[in-house]
Amino acid sequence: METILFLSHTEPDGALPRAALEALTAARALAQGTKGQLVLGVFGAETAGAAAQLAGAGAQRALAVTSPELAAARYASDAAAAEALARAAGATVVVAPSTSRLARVLAGVSHRLGGKIDTHATGVAAQDGAPTVTRWFYRQRMEATLRRAARPWFVTVDAGTQPAFRAEGAAPALEAVPLALADAQRRTRVTGFRAPEAQAQTIRPDAKLLFVAGAGWTKKQADGKPHLDQAEQLILGFLGKAKASLGSSKSMTDLATEGHGVMGFMTHLNQVGQTGSTPRHAKGLATCCHGEEPHVVGWRFINERRAVNLDPNCGWARGKADVVYVADAFAVMEKVNALLASRG
Ligand SMILES: Cc1cc2nc3c(=O)[nH]c(=O)nc-3n(C[C@H](O)[C@H](O)[C@H](O)COP(=O)(O)OP(=O)(O)OC[C@H]3O[C@@H](n4cnc5c(N)ncnc54)[C@H](O)[C@@H]3O)c2cc1C
User: Fold this and answer.
1) pLDDT grade, residue 288 (50/70/90)?
2) Beta 130-137 vs 116-127: how paired, if at all?
3) Residue owning the nearest CA to atom 19 of ligand 1
4) What is the Cα–Cα distance from 100 to 338, expressed in whole angstroms?
C-alpha cells in the first residue's frame, strides 16, 4: 500500500502558501485513487496556523517539524526537516508544492532517501491503482504521463494547476517530529531581505489577469513620434488599478533590458513565450503585441484571450485570441484606466 506524504513548509505567519493547498488536493486524490494512506507533513518556525488549513483532509497522521531554525529558507535545515518528515511518515510517494523553497531542496532529499523525483507536475492521478504523474516537456509542447517503480517518489506540483483544498471541520492534532541540526547545518545565516520596490513587483502569479505589453508601446505612433512616458503611465496605471500581472513580448523585454531607457520596471522575467515563461492566469490581454507564434506558445494555459492591436491581420486575429480589438491601445487603455478610477 502506498503512503502518500503531503509535504510543505509554512510561511512566516505559520500558514501554508496557496500552492501547498493545491498540492494537497493532488495528494488527497492520489491517496484515494491508490487506496493508500495519506500523511500530512509541515515544517517551519510556526506550524500551528497550518493545522486549521488541513482540517478535513482525511489524513491518517499529521506531522510537524517546528523550529526557529526553519524561519528562513536555508538548504541544510530545510532538507533536514523534509527528510525527517519523509522518514517519520514512511512515505512511498511525497507530493509537495513547487515553491522556490521546496524546489531547491527536494532533489537532494530524494537522493538521500534513495528515491527519485519528478518536478513541475501538472497532474497526479492513479491508473489501475498505481500513481502516475503528468508533466510537460520541450517548452510545453509535449505532455507525458509517467510511472515509476522507485520509491520514495518525490513529486513537486506546479502552482495554478489544481484547485486549492478548502478546510472543513476540526484541525488535526500535529504530531511533533524532532529535528537535530549539527552546527554545520546552521552555518548559513539569513541577515535580511532585499526586495524590489512594491511598484516594481509586476509579476503576480495569483492575479486574475495577465496584461502583456508588446514592443508597439515604444514605436512611433500616428503623429510620427513615440510616446514612452505616456506608455509607462498607462501600463503602470492599469497594473496598479487592476492588480494584474505584467507580461511582455521578447521584443519589448529586449528593448527594456538592453539600455534603451524604456520601461525600467520590465525585466526578462516578464517575458512570455518560447524563450520566456508560460504563465497560468485565467485571462490574458495583449496590447501592442503582434501575437507571433514564439510569443503565443507561452499562452498555452491562458484560456480567455483578448488583444488590442492596430493591425487587423496581426497574429492574434488568426485564431490565437478569442477577441481582437482593432484599436489604438493608447486610447483603449486610457479609457479603461479612467473607468477603473471612476469605480474607485
Ligand atoms: C527562437 C525564437 C524564440 C523567441 N522567443 C520569444 C518569446 O519567448 N517571447 C516573445 O514574445 N517572442 C519571442 N520571439 C520573438 C517573436 O518571434 C517576435 O519577434 C516578438 O514576439 C515580437 O514582439 P512584439 O509583438 O511585441 O513586437 P512587434 O512585432 O514589433 O509588434 C508590435 C505590434 O504593436 C502593434 N501596435 C503598435 N502601435 C500600436 C497601438 N498604438 N495600438 C495597438 N497596437 C499597436 C503593431 O501593430 C504590431 O503588431 C522569439 C523568436 C525566435 C526566433
Assistant:
1) very high
2) antiparallel
3) 251
4) 37
Q: Whose CA is nearest to atom 27 of ligand 1?
A: 215
In three-state secondary structure terms, 206 is: coil
**Strand order, beta sheet including 93-97:** 142-146, 130-137, 116-127, 153-157, 93-97, 3-9, 37-44, 61-66, 175-176
When pLDDT is cut at 50, 70 and 90, the band that residue 121 belongs to is very high
Query: Does residue 126 contact residue 33 with C-beta atoms inside 8 Å?
Result: yes
- Pocket test of ligand 1: the residue of 225, 250, 267, 308 to mutate, having most ligand atoms within 8 Å of its CB, is 250
Average pLDDT, the chain: 95
DSSP 53: H
Q: For each of the domains in the chain, give its residue range(s) and CATH number, in order of start.
A: 3-186 (3.40.50.620), 198-343 (3.40.50.1220)
User: How far, in Å, from the CA of 216 to the mean position of ligand 1?
Assistant: 8
Distance 316 CA to ligand 1 centre (A): 11
Percent of the chain residues past pLDDT 70, beyond the cut? 98
Calpha distance 273→226 (Å, rounded): 25
- pTM (predicted TM-score): 0.79
Q: Phi/psi at 327 (nearest 5 deg)?
A: -160, 165
What does 67-128 look like in DSSP terms, one character per residue?
-GGGSS--HHHHHHHHHHHHHHHT-SEEEEE--HHHHHHHHHHHHHTT-EEEEEEEEEEEET
Bridge-based pairing state of the strands 283-287 and 209-213: parallel
Q: How far apart are CA 291 and CA 130, in angstroms?
A: 41
Regarding beta strands 304-309 and 130-137, do their DSSP bridges make them parallel or antiparallel, or are they unpaired? unpaired
C-alpha cell at 280: 497560468
Residues near 237 by Cβ (< 8 Å), separated by ≥ 6?
Answer: 333, 337
